[in-house]
Amino acid sequence: MIFANGSILPDSELNPVLGCLGEEIAQTLGGPPLEVCIVLDALEGLGEELDSGALDPLIAQYAPPGAREELARIRPQISRAALEQRLALELGGLAGPRPFGRSQVRPLGVLLHVAPGNMAGLPAFTAVEGLLTGNINLVKLPRGDRGLTLAIFQKLTELEPRLSPWLYAFDIPSKDAASLRRLTALSDGIVTWGGDGAIAAMRKLAPPGCKLIEWGHRLSFAYLSGWEGMDLFPLADHIVRTGGLLCSSCQVIYLDTDLLSVAERFCKKFLPVLEKAAASRYKAPGQAAQAALYARETALEQVVDRAGFDDLNYPGQSCSLTLRRDMELELSHLHGNVLVKRLPRGEIIPVLRRQRGRLQTAGLICPEAERETLAALLARAGVNRITVPGHMSDSLPLEAHDGEYPLRRYVQVVDIEDP
Predict the structure, then answer these.
(1) Among 77, 175, 274, 371, which is 20 to 30 Å from 223 by CA?
(2) Alpha-carbon distance 213 to 211, whole Å?
(3) Tens digit of pLDDT for each residue in 371-405?
(4) Is 402 left (phi over 0), alpha (psi -120 to 50) or beta?
(5) Could you give the domains of the chain?
């Protein structure tokens, strides 16, 4: 399906829509700029409908299970007050008088968003960031979007029809290079979410002079030092809740020790906690069975793919732990099946630096007296987000994204000299 001019259209309209898109973009950019108050008013109206439950049928129809809970988690960050604070933080100070005249903050113009599919609502959220900075937004929908993004766009433009010429969405397969090239040819910036393959593909399609804004896949982990006696349930709940699917999901639980016996003791203590988290999350019909199947598949893959590696496996009810003897940061199996490794603090920098540029969140559990020291080590290794484990995938007020402020990447500073 396609979203254009405030309407949802069939895929058969792709060529006609693309044929007129350049002219429509020129007309929009030649008219009045998109005022941020218009965007904030529309988002405030959308938030009020979300709070009242008016959007619950839409969420139930188009979003995956658990989406309502995730929306409730991020709701405070999309309030009008939070967005106004974010605009002031990320864009404040870029405009103003200069010795030569003045500087202004202007949108790039047209942003093509190659949207991710690993979190419900994220394609719409990346477009909202483009709206907040006054850009026209062309969204390439991820496979399996289920119609949620189109429904959000339609609701936004119903609340505020003036947003219609600033929002487009296209369900174009990644292999349709010809159609994607037509979109990139109209874009001033390409916002790419995804792995190395997706980013490399868009680099090839981007015309010269087009700004590439890459939000690639990242790796996150938990780091535990002096964990005995501490509450481990928030970490377990995070592992089960996110299923390892997000850039901020814990892929490896690192322990500040070089002793295998300590790591074994941790696994024996943590497995019942992980089982408790799984039991509290997998309540819908079939969820527990599906999780048990994932755990079984993980165990079988360990036997086949890791023969000779001397891993220690701890199977549980609908989850599992795998204690490996190396220190490398890598992807875990999904859905409550996580890796455990030893990483003495003296090895943090040399080991994690091997993944520099891919590091994101570290969930840190340690005595309060050691938190600043360990946080500094993790930051020097390249980690750009350090949280308590239960908040690894939560949206924190006024935080950066992968170490940068996104809105700054979607604008340009225009310097104007006075005569």
Answers:
(1) 77
(2) 6
(3) 999 999 999 999 999 999 999 998 888 888 888 99
(4) left
(5) 2-217+402-417 (3.40.605.10), 219-391 (3.40.309.10)
